[in-house]
Design brief:
This protein has about 230 residues and is an alpha+beta fold. It has one domain (about 5-215): Class II aldolase/adducin N-terminal domain (L-fuculose-1-phosphate Aldolase). The protein has 8 helices and 7 strands. It has helices at about 5-20, 75-85, 100-105, 115-120, 135, 140-150, 175-200, 210-215, and strands at about 30-35, 40, 55-60, 65, 90-95, 160-165, 170-175. The protein has a 7-stranded antiparallel sheet with strand order 4-3-2-1-5-7-6, sandwiched between helices. A hairpin with a 4-residue loop joins strand 3 (about 55-60) and strand 4 (about 65). The longest helix is centred in the last third of the chain and has 24 residues, at about 175-200.
Length: about 230
């Protein structure tokens, strides 16, 4: 059942390790079959060296395991909440990569300071509000997802495919598991670049709206002209 989806999700998880974004069993990637309402996700606590497609767990959008002998990631409720609310996404990634996590732990958004950032993310990378004691003690992972969704009440998850969870770490998404990982790779790079830029020039101003629009929309949207197109 969903053999290809499990293969893609497994490959995306292993790519995280290849990109040095995870250690041990930290982090997870999932993918969804929208038509069937089935999500494939990394099993909880399994190292990347052990991970194979047959170990990927399938759950429905209510969180019920429909295939697999292992427990799904403990972050599964967060992933499911995003899939339920962000209808355009097909893959989700979560890590504790160093630079993005520094910003998350600082509870600070990552300002858009240059075109490297603007090529992928339309503006500052948002950070969620800090969870309350009650939210942490009751349905913590679900409430993490809800905090992300609430933060995106006025933000397009298509134009902004990343978020920092306060005191926690980053989540990214895309049309596929592979694209969710690509967004995480880029997020870590721009998190590092922004951090070093601010160290060098503490009062660095954000990119102009004109330059942000130019770089983002030349790669995304109806008027995009970067690359070779769909053909």
């Amino acid at each position: 059942m969903h053999k290809e989806l499990k293969k893609l999700v497994c490959e995306a998880n292993i790519e995280l390790q290849k990109r040095n974004l995870v250690i041990y069993s930290w982090g997870n990637v999932s993918g969804i079959d929208r038509a069937a309402g089935i999500v494939a996700i990394k099993p909880s606590g399994i190292s990347y060296e052990e991970l194979t497609p047959d170990k990927i767990v399938l759950v429905d959008l209510a969180g019920k395991v429909v295939e697999g002998n292992l427990k799904p990631s403990s972050d599964t409720p967060t992933h499911l909440e995003l899939y339920r609310n962000f209808k355009s996404i097909g893959g989700i990634c979560h890590t504790h990569s160093t630079s993005a996590t520094i910003w998350s732990q600082s509870c600070r958004e990552i300002p858009c300071l240059g075109t490297t950032h603007a090529d992928y993310f339309y503006g500052a990378i948002p950070v969620t509000k800090i969870l309350t004691k009650n939210q942490i003690q009751n349905d913590y992972e679900l409430n993490t997802g809800k905090a992300i969704v609430k933060r995106f009440a006025k933000i397009s998850p298509v134009y902004m495919q990343a978020v920092l969870v306060a005191n926690h770490g980053p989540f990214t998404w895309g049309k596929s598991p592979a694209q969710a990982v690509e967004a995480m790779v880029v997020l870590e790079e721009i998190a590092t670049t922004a951090l070093r830029t601010i160290v060098l020039k503490h009062k660095q101003t954000k990119i102009s709206k004109y330059l942000l629009d130019k770089h983002f929309f030349r790669k995304h949207g109806k008027g995009a002209y970067y690359g070779q197109g769909d053909n």
